[in-house]
Amino acid sequence: MIKDTHTSPSIGRPREFEIEEVVRKAMGVFWDRGYHDASLPDLLDGMGLSRGSFYKAFSDKRGVFLRALDVYIDDAIRKVSEMLSSNASPKAAIREAFSCYAELSSGKDGLRGCFVVLTATEMLPGDEEVLIRIARLFRRLQDLFAAAIIRAQALGEIDHSLNERTFARFLVCQIQGMRVLGKAGADRDDMRSVIDLALKPLT
């Protein structure tokens, strides 16, 4: 666990912070304000760091932003992997994963949106480093869904004629579309009806 120690000018004693913890706090600032509108004072306040500690740990705003994006992407990949392996029935696991995204795409969570979608809208196509990261996320999500489809086909739950790569790509596109609809205030019933339609080829 990486820690940084600095002396607080107000109380004159060392203060420790965990890098991942403050990166997650920075993520919240970028998520709410976007990359370009998040000022250094916003970040220092949100992360609870002095200016000196910030620059010692991250060098600049872009450095902490890319770290935050990496953390979000790693979290997303891990969560989907866990969801798709949480049920003995891969077909049921795919539906459960979509149900989870339906919740994330409605109500308060839906209005906040997806950090990656918001970042892509703001930063792409011109930012190569961001492009590489977001492309990696979508590629890994497609891989995970394709693997679940293959497992379901092996168990006889899904027709073998269904192309796992094409359908996995469709599912990822559908998920991201749900997150965008959530920003426009879609409710849970809207999202659940989308799930039934999107997963119809699995019946």
Task: Tell me about this structure.
The chain is mainly alpha-helical and 203 residues long. The chain has two domains: 1-59, Orthogonal Bundle (Arc Repressor Mutant, subunit A); 69-202, Orthogonal Bundle (Tetracycline Repressor, domain 2), CATH 1.10.357.10. 70% of the residues lie in helices and 5% in strands. The protein contains ten helices and two strands. The chain has helices at 19-33, 40-47, 51-58, 61-84, 90-104, 107-112, 115-123, 128-154, 164-183, 188-198; strands at residues 3-7, 14-18. A two-stranded antiparallel ribbon has the order 1-2. A hairpin with a 6-residue loop joins strand 1 (3-7) and strand 2 (14-18). Helix 4 runs parallel beside helix 8, helix 5 (90-104) packs antiparallel against helix 10 (188-198) and helix 8 packs across helix 9 (164-183). The radius of gyration is 20 Å and the shape is elongated. The model is unreliable at 1-15 (pLDDT under 50).
